[in-house]
Design goal:
Creatine Amidinohydrolase, alpha+beta, 23% strand, 5 helices, 278 residues, binds magnesium ion
Length: 278
């Protein structure tokens, strides 16, 4: 079989648990700070401080031309929004935060969550929460599929099936998930939608980030004048959820979740196995 990605040992996955937990801590610190009146640059500072305090550093800052610790994408912005002191959260906004951390010894984590800013119009907030729930649900459907998948395209098929079962949504195809390890972005590409190409075999040692990007309207997007921010072309709201997941001989472990994904995978009958206990 052709080597289509760098296989990680269980010992290396244990190092990646640390990267994942730092990333999760940064996102949870931001979650606690989400309220009307906060700027996305303040959220960026919270993530940076959390990562550094835990002995890591930002891997987003290692991306050429990017100078922040998070991407913060509000309402019709889907991904890659640049933090700014002039972007102030409003009641009812839907905001996705993408964040990553690298350990001192060079292992990477990458994760994204979507939040609804408290307050504002109740009907709008409810619709935005549903969009976030559908997107998060599709991520967990993809992770659950990974646990038993033989080929990688089973993940994207499960993500898309979940979203299609919830209603009419746009599923981005221009941006995809990826392998992760010594670098934040590695092979193989991970499609968050159904593809005919079966993709690489799923074998122990595969570590990937799955990251569905979903809109409440069309999947068409464009990049703003800042050369980074990806917005929905029809102005519809967007959500983005992401986790980094390791596949080993005994099962899977969600590296960017403290419980390895146990709570969210329980409905699928999947019990994640901690590589630190192997
Ligand atoms: Mg990410
Ligand atoms: Mg990613």
């Amino acid at each position: 079989m052709r080597q289509e990605y760098t296989v990680k040992t269980t010992a290396q996955m244990v190092r990646m648990v640390e990267a994942g937990l730092i990333t999760e801590a940064a996102l949870l610190a931001i979650k606690a700070a989400i309220r009307p009146g906060v700027s996305t640059l303040e959220l960026d500072a919270i993530a940076e401080a959390t990562i550094v305090k835990m002995g890591g550093h930002s891997n987003f800052k290692l991306v050429p031309g990017y100078f922040h610790t998070i991407c913060a994408s509000i309402n019709d912005e889907v991904v890659h929004g640049i933090p700014s002191k002039t972007r102030i959260l409003q009641a009812g906004d839907i905001i996705s935060i993408d964040c990553g951390a690298e350990t001192a010894d060079g292992w990477n984590g990458d994760s994204a969550m979507t939040f609804i800013v408290p307050g504002g119009d109740e009907t709008v907030a409810k619709a935005r929460q549903t969009l976030s729930d559908v997107t998060e649900g599709s991520l967990w459907a993809g992770i659950a599929a990974l646990a038993t998948a033989k080929r990688l395209n089973e993940v994207g098929a499960a993500v898309e099936k979940h979203i299609r079962g919830q209603g009419r949504y746009g599923i981005l195809q221009e941006y995809v998930g990826h392998g992760i390890g010594r670098s934040m972005h590695e092979d193989p590409p991970v499609f968050n939608y159904k593809t005919k190409v079966s993709g690489p075999h799923v074998v122990p040692g595969l570590v990937i980030a799955i990251e569905p990007m979903v809109t409440a309207g069309s999947a068409r997007t464009h990049v703003l004048d800042d050369d980074w921010t990806v917005s929905s072309s029809d102005g519809s709201d967007a959500s983005h959820w992401e986790h980094s997941i390791a596949v080993h001989e005994k099962g899977i472990w969600v590296l960017t979740a403290s419980d390895g994904g146990a709570a969210k995978l329980a409905p699928f009958g999947i019990v994640p196995v901690d590589p630190r206990n192997i």
